[in-house]
From TrEMBL:
Keyword Transcription regulation tagged: no
Domain annotation Methyltransferase: ranges: 154-291
Keyword Methyltransferase recorded: yes
UniProt-listed GO biological process terms: methylation
Lineage, opening ranks: Bacteria, Bacillati, Bacillota, Bacilli, Bacillales
Stated name of the protein: Class I SAM-dependent methyltransferase
Keywords tagged on the record: Methyltransferase, Transferase
GO molecular-function terms, A-Z: methyltransferase activity
Superkingdom of the organism of origin: Bacteria
UniProt cross-references to InterPro entries, sorted A to Z: Methyltranfer_dom, SAM-dependent_MTases_sf
Organism: Planococcus dechangensis
């Protein structure tokens, strides 16, 4: 069989949406870091796609391709690999290519198969259990063979959830220059290392990441880990959010569990830097708790526990509304399941420069007046409102 004929037959199968699974293996170059590629169909909001999972020595990479893109990618892969196993809905196909590209194409009927088009990210993690990632091994989340440690599995889930947010934000980051990212209150930096690994190692992006924290001992430890991993474009500095003045423009600002108004300081700085992406998981929202006075809400506010929780929700709602009014598309999202931590709300904001909706400022004023609230972030952004 000729190569062209083989590709025509594969094209007919893919175009009919009959693919169930496939594996491309046996690289021609023994030194190749890419060992195999698995294919499966998925149904996304963009429509039917073929997901390619590239299995390297230590990492997995994914991309979802249209049928035309998938066919072009298969043509490329069959110049670098010698075997393909395809399961279609009613047929199994085995393809073997010799060193001189002579093709063996074996087909046999199979019992009717049904393709699973689900794309469940909670099960299909971007980082896989069983695949060793140097940063996760170094941070004690994985063993040397890539197995996630039992006591660290919640952290592993959190890291994967965070990477999903990073992946969703890619289209809002520049593609033609170095991406500048700041992580305020980086702490032990599990997520900072995850961000760097995903964007730099897996996506191959040109970026520079700075983690900032007040604890010198923690920063020194993170600096050493970054050196050990050879993460040359990741730095950690001791410093406070208000005092950091080494950047005039930033593309992404991350702030995770910055306490109380420290979150607002980071959000305000991000806005003034015109950051394209803001990801913030607030913590310890005490500001409104001491301000709220509203007799219509006394049935709630008379209970300290309820008042604390209401104040936290009101604070994050105000933050999201203010970001929206200064040109961001803003959402409040679940970071990880409530069973793992009560601090599970993530503020995600993308700069769109969209003008506020009619009555949005008036509606905001009515809400803060109801609560007798004078939010710190409002004062920080007053020149932009």
């Amino acid at each position: 069989m000729e190569l062209q004929t083989m590709h025509v037959q594969l094209a007919e199968k893919l175009q009919s949406h009959s693919l169930v699974t496939a594996t491309i293996s046996q690289p021609r170059q023994k030194s190749s870091d890419l060992k195999r590629i698995k294919l499966k169909p998925v149904e996304l909001k963009e429509g039917y796609r073929i997901q390619f999972e590239y299995q390297y020595e230590q990492i997995l990479k994914h991309q979802n391709l249209s049928i035309d893109q998938a066919l072009a990618e298969l043509e490329r892969l069959f110049t670098e690999f010698r075997q393909g196993l395809f399961q279609f809905t009613d047929e199994k196909v085995q393809i073997q290519l010799t060193k001189k590209f002579k093709i063996s194409y074996k087909s046999e009927a199979s019992e009717q198969q049904v393709a699973d088009l689900s794309h469940n990210r909670k099960k299909d993690y971007l980082l896989q259990d069983g695949v060793p990632y140097p940063f996760l091994v170094r941070l004690g989340v994985q063993s040397e063979d890539g197995k996630v440690k039992k006591q660290k599995y919640d952290k592993f889930r959190q890291i994967n959830r965070f990477i999903e947010f990073i992946d969703d934000a890619l289209e809002h980051l520049p593609q033609d220059r170095t991406i500048r990212i700041l992580d305020f209150g980086s702490g032990k930096s599990y997520l900072t290392f995850a961000l760097y690994h995903y964007l730099r190692i897996e996506k191959g992006l040109d970026l520079r990441v700075t983690g900032l924290d007040l604890k010198k001992s923690v920063i020194e430890e993170c600096q050493q880990i970054a050196r050990d991993l050879d993460y040359g474009q990741l730095e950690f500095l001791v410093g406070d959010i208000n005092d950091y003045d080494k950047a005039t423009a930033v593309d992404m600002v991350v702030t995770l569990h910055a306490c109380d108004v420290a979150t607002d300081m980071a959000l305000a700085r991000a806005v003034k830097w015109n950051a394209g992406v803001i990801l913030s998981v607030p913590c310890c929202q005490h500001e409104l708790n001491s301000q709220i006075q509203s007799s219509p809400l006394d049935i709630m506010l008379q209970h300290g526990l309820i008042k604390e929780r209401f104040s936290a929700l009101a604070t994050d709602s105000i933050r999201a509304e203010l970001l929206s009014m200064v040109g961001y598309e803003t959402q409040l999202m679940e970071f990880i399941d409530m069973e793992h931590t009560p601090k599970n709300i993530l503020i995600r904001a993308y700069r769109t420069n969209k003008k506020p909706a009619d009555r949005q400022l008036e509606r905001y004023r009515e809400f803060t007046k109801l609560l007798s609230a004078k939010p710190f972030l409002e004062n920080e952004l007053k020149e932009l409102l």
